[in-house]
């Protein structure tokens, strides 16, 4: 709540566009390394009254690993982060840091004794403290000169050493994010947790911040958990991604594995733009013989959701594949999405092509599928 207040206060003070992309960051390799910890969730559940925010979460994060928690609003990402940080207690299960129970039936270690760092979505800087004091805020328990030195080093690493004695209201949104990052890394946490750290930034700045932050996380070698609802961000940052839904982890793995072998339709939709056809193997084999390998072993009348990635829909000359007609062309910069009515299919297919390959609306085409871009799920899923 306080964070939201501070954030609104900043927006009032600084209505101008978010700046900071070009500003120089500190020297690469200058972030102080931490002693990374292993973080383990064992069958963690969290219940609020009759509602389960988390159910049976088990996840083991190796020292120095970056794991992104990805899922739609309300799936439990923030709750899991808060439980790891010690701000919330699990209703069941255990949390371990380096094999030692920090939350569970036998023990509860408070946040300040866990050596974890937290960075919030809204940066939550204190307007009445200097930038240096904001960063030193998390360095309680060590002598002031040392705290200031560590805070200065962290600020220098994010390229804001020169602004240390100023107050946060002079900063752009991107610079506030950098201060929040400096504050999170200054105590050299063994586990760094970030809750939607880039969601308040505009699109161009976001990518730049993600890259810079990733460089710093690698330098520090801290175990990191990053909460996001943005699949692209998760793919860019995470060594592994844990996809969450309804309080559970649906699938966890490196981004490539999740993209290539999604466990269900829900995960597939997260990582790729797919066409979905509710059908049977018999119907699909008749329309698209090239997709037959993906249907191997399925009963011919089994109800399936046949998915093909947009980039896997091929538009050819009319003497190849199924007859189609271009209904719509949406220009997306270096790509175009083409909507094609296809003989034998109720709904149009969407094809994604390079911008130079986009046919005109009304063109007659032949439609084939790239067998490597096909996914098949039982209809009960997703
Ligand atoms: P978002 O992306 O919107 O932040 P999230 O995935 O982080 O969502 P959580 O904030 O962890 O989701 O919430 C998970 C579920 O638990 C939601 O249904 C939420 O309403 C519920 N919840 C969270 N905190 C509380 C609370 N203190 N009291 C009651 N219900 C809560």
Keywords:
382 residues, alpha+beta, Rossmann fold, OB fold (Dihydrolipoamide Acetyltransferase, E2P), five-stranded antiparallel β-sheet, 18 strands, 30% strand, binds adenosine-5'-triphosphate
In short:
By secondary structure, the chain is α+β, with helices and mostly antiparallel strands. Helix content is 26%, strand content 30%.
CATH topology of the largest domain: Rossmann fold
The sequence of SSEs as H and E is HEEEHEEEHHHEHEHEEHHEHEEEEEEE
Largest sheet: 6 strands, mixed
The N- and C-terminal alpha carbons lie at a distance of 35 Å
Strand order in space, largest sheet:
6-7-8-3-9-10
Number of helices: 10
Shape from CA axes?
Answer: globular
CATH architecture label name of the largest domain: 3-Layer(aba) Sandwich
Task: Map the helices and strands.
Layout: H1 2-13, E1 39-48, E2 51-61, E3 66-70, H2 77-85, E4 92-97, E5 100-103, E6 116-119, H3 131-136, H4 144-157, H5 173-185, E7 191-195, H6 203-220, E8 223-228, H7 231-237, E9 240-245, E10 248-253, H8 255-260, H9 265-271, E11 274-279, H10 281-287, E12 304-309, E13 313-316, E14 322-331, E15 335-342, E16 349-354, E17 364-369, E18 374-378
Parallel strand pairs: 3-8, 3-9, 6-7, 7-8
Antiparallel strand pairs: 1-2, 1-4, 4-5, 9-10, 11-12, 12-18, 13-17, 14-15, 14-17, 15-16
Helix pairs in contact: 4-5, 5-6
The structure holds adenosine-5'-triphosphate.
């Amino acid at each position: 709540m306080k964070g939201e207040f501070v954030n609104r206060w900043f927006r009032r003070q600084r209505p101008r566009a978010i700046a900071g992309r070009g500003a120089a960051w500190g020297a690469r390799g200058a972030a102080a390394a931490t002693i990374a910890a292993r973080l383990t969730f064992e069958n963690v559940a969290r219940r609020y009254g009759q509602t389960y925010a988390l159910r049976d979460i088990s996840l083991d994060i190796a020292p120095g690993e970056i794991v992104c928690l990805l899922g739609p609003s309300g799936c439990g990402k923030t709750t899991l982060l808060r439980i790891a940080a010690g701000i919330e207690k699990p209703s069941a299960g255990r949390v371990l840091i380096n094999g030692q129970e920090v939350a569970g039936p036998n023990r509860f270690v408070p946040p300040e004794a866990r050596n974890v760092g937290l960075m919030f979505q809204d940066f939550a800087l204190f307007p009445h403290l200097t930038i240096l004091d904001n960063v030193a805020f998390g360095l309680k328990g060590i002598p002031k000169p040392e705290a200031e030195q560590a805070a200065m080093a962290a600020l220098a690493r994010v390229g804001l050493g020169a602004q240390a004695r100023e107050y946060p209201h002079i900063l752009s949104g991107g610079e506030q994010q950098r201060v929040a990052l400096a504050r999170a890394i200054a105590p050299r946490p063994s586990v760094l947790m970030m809750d939607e750290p880039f969601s308040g930034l505009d699109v161009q700045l976001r990518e730049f911040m993600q890259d810079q932050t990733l460089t710093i996380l690698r330098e520090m070698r801290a175990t990191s958990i990053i909460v996001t609802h943005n699949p692209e961000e998760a793919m860019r940052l995470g060594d592994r991604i844990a996809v969450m839904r309804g309080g559970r982890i649906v699938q966890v793995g490196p981004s490539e594995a999740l993209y290539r072998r999604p466990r269900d339709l829900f995960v597939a939709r997260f990582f790729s733009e797919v066409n979905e056809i509710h059908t049977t193997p018999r119907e699909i084999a008749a329309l698209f013989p090239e997709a037959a390998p993906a249907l191997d072993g399925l009963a011919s009348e089994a109800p399936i959701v046949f998915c093909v990635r947009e980039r896997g829909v091929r538009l050819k000359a009319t003497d190849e594949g199924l007859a189609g007609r271009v209904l719509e062309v949406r220009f997306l910069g270096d790509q175009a999405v083409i909507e094609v009515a296809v003989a034998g299919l109720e709904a149009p297919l969407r094809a994604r092509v390079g911008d130079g390959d986009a046919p005109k609306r009304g063109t007659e085409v032949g439609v084939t599928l790239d067998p490597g871009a096909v996914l098949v799920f039982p209809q009960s899923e997703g």
